Amino acid sequence: MTLLSWPLWIAVALVLIGVYLSWTAGRLDRLHARIDAARAALDAQLLRRASIAQELATSGIFDPAASMVLNQAAHAARQAEDEHREVAESELSQALRAVLGESAQVEAVREAPGGEDTTRELVAAVRRVPMARRFHNDAVRAARALRRHRTVRWFRLAGHAPFPLAFEMDDEPPAALSAAGH
């Protein structure tokens, strides 16, 4: 090897390192965009579920105590700030299980005027929330794994993006409602 070839090899190595770092930064950026999109989808599904629950609570189908519990939980879930959202959504899940825990209650919803559509919408909403949450949390997990790599940390490839957080909540659907959807 001649003395002239060393600078060429160093230049090639630096270009390859630059391409790798650029590719990794782009991948991280795409993961953050995927998290944002998944979070927007999750927010939409949570809002849809809360809206349907609030509609049910004010429909007059349930006794006043059940209606009040469901209405308060749905309202709290819709109005919750980000730092309290997981708790509020979990409480809405618990209220849905309490109010729609038995098949007779689900049948009462189904037999009300427009109840067939409402039941179908509610079944779809309680099924989509766990799926949307899973997509969001999978994207968060992938971004976290990439951000833990030394290369990403050393070269600060994440920039100023906040560390992604998973959305943890109780999203267990009411058993009677799950059975109604099958």
TrEMBL record:
Transmembrane segments: 6-25
SUPFAM superfamilies attached to this UniProt entry: LemA-like
UniProt KW keywords: Membrane, Transmembrane, Transmembrane helix
Protein name: LemA family protein
Species of origin: Streptomyces carpaticus
